[in-house]
Design a protein that fits this description.
71% helix; MetI-like fold; 11 helices; single chain; mainly alpha
């Protein structure tokens, strides 16, 4: 832990990310108000003691909705990274182990998926299945599959050439056991780093999709959706856009710095000579 917290990026990223997680956890059991309860008499109020972040065009408490939106952002990040990590690692391991035709097929499929950005994939999926948070997560998760597949393949191919793999084969251990007992543990560090960084990208992507109306649907709170609703009232109620925008920037910066800190600490090539 001393080595991790001795890295400035990791320390700052950990603090920022922890705040997001804590706020999300608190919102599961308590928020100042019901985030979906409308109160027309208090619509478009500025920050006050009763509403620290003001209210929106329906009189809903902005603080409560920002807190609830943190839960959705974390869920999106976890689910999309889980989709990309699970399928991508399996494909990457198969590509590294079998090689030749299997490797070529998987890598060309990855190239095909890379040709469709997350937003375009979401548009295609939601035009067929309908706009929803689940479909947005599916679109982002599919986009992550080639990211983790390529990373897993590159690192696994290096591990397969190491001396301890040859020793394991000589001792009679099956290829399946070698994969899960020796290869997988040695590729966890880069996967953890990539997963943390992609978590931040997923939060930003979900906010963008919700802003376009392709992600989380009302009345469920979403930071991107809140920005979309705020643009009409920017001239009279700028705080409606400021606070969800700050929340997005805070979360994305936190998880990005956390990923950079993990890379600096876990990757021997990134260790600086002091």
């Amino acid at each position: 832990m001393k080595r991790f917290f001795g890295n400035l990026n990791f320390t700052v990223g950990f603090i920022l990310s922890a705040v997001v997680v804590v706020v999300a956890a608190i919102s599961l059991i308590w928020t100042p108000y019901d985030g979906n309860k409308m109160n027309p008499r208090e619509r478009l109020q500025g920050p006050t003691w009763s509403h620290p972040l003001g209210t929106d065009q329906y009189g809903r408490d902005t603080l409560s909705r920002v807190m609830t939106g943190a839960v959705n952002s974390i869920i999106v990040g976890l689910v999309t990274v889980a989709i990309g990590l699970t399928i991508g690692v399996l494909l990457g391991l198969a590509s590294a182990y079998y090689g030749k035709l299997v490797d070529e097929s998987i890598m060309r499929l990855s190239d095909l998926l890379f040709g469709f950005p997350a937003v375009l994939t979401a548009i295609l999926i939601t035009s067929i299945l309908g706009a929803s948070m689940i479909n947005a997560m599916l679109a982002i998760g599919i986009f992550y599959i080639p990211v983790f597949a390529r990373l897993t393949r590159a690192v696994a191919m290096t591990v397969w050439e190491r001396e301890f793999i040859a020793a394991a084969r000589a001792s009679g251990i099956s290829e399946w056991s070698i994969t899960w007992r020796h290869v997988v543990p040695n590729i966890l560090s880069p996967l953890l780093i990539q997963g943390t960084i992609q978590f931040a990208v997923a939060i930003l992507a979900e906010a963008g999709l919700s802003y376009l109306g392709l992600g989380t649907q009302p009345p469920t709170a979403s930071w991107g959706r809140m920005l979309n609703e705020a643009q009409t009232f920017m001239s009279m109620s700028s705080w409606m856009a400021i606070f969800p925008g700050v929340a997005i920037a805070w979360a994305v910066l936190g998880f990005n710095l956390l990923g950079d800190g993990l890379r600096d600490t876990l990757d021997p090539r990134m260790v600086r000579v002091r």
